[in-house]
Amino acid sequence: MDELLFYRIKLSSFKSLILKVAKERIRSISKSDVETKSLKDIKETLLNLTIVKPVFFTDEFDLEYREEKGRKHVTRYRMFTGDERLFDVEPSSSTFNPPRGEITTYEGRRVLAFSGDFDLSTTLTDAVQGLERRMPDIQTFISKVNLDLTELNRSVSELVDSDLPIRYTQIKKDIDDYNFLKSKK
């Protein structure tokens, strides 16, 4: 069942959530991490885990077709790369109704699916073209979300750049203090 895309969560809420996750990951840096990894390596790992990957559609697609109750039911599957949560985020600059679709699993992959019911007299080609008319709106919304994502990821990077060295230094100092006290016994 096709649902509204780019509708469930405001960009500001999504940004707050991602920044909160980044802060929690920084706070969760352990003594073991500091002892075994460089600041640069920890930063790289944190960014890889926290930076939200933009969505891009691949050239791959598939189609399912069936007749039921005197109608043709056609589902179009579009493969994509990136973070599927972005299909739920309302872009900061949306001016028209969000498109419909569904993120689902198809042949073991997460895909965007959109479907429609057509008269039996409708050719499969016409049905597919009707469904494909949704893609420009979906592409417009995903482009806007990806643009907003640039700012979000910059904020995450700045947070990691500012807070991680403080946390790393704090843990390093605790280790040094512990080792100093241990050596005095």
What does this structure look like?
The protein has 185 residues and is an alpha+beta fold. The chain has one domain. 50% of the residues lie in helices and 26% in strands. The strands form two sheets. The protein has a five-stranded antiparallel beta sheet, with helices on one face. A hairpin with a 2-residue loop joins strand 3 (56-68) and strand 4 (71-81).
Question: What are the SSEs and their pairings?
Answer:
Blueprint: E1 3-4, E2 9-10, H1 11-27, H2 31-36, H3 39-50, E3 56-68, E4 71-81, E5 89-90, E6 100-106, E7 109-119, H4 124-132, H5 135-183
Helix pairs in contact: 1-5, 3-5
| Spans of at least 5 consecutive residues with low confidence | none
Order of helices and strands: EEHHHEEEEEHH
Category by helix and strand content: alpha+beta
Please work out how many helical segments DSSP would assign.
Answer: 5
Helix content: 40-55%
Q: In percent, how much strand structure appears in the residues?
A: 25-35%
Termini gap: 69 Å
Summarize, please:
It is built from five helices and seven strands; from the N terminus they run E-E-H-H-H-E-E-E-E-E-H-H. The model has no long low-confidence stretch (mean pLDDT 90). It is α+β, with helices and mostly antiparallel strands and 185 residues long.
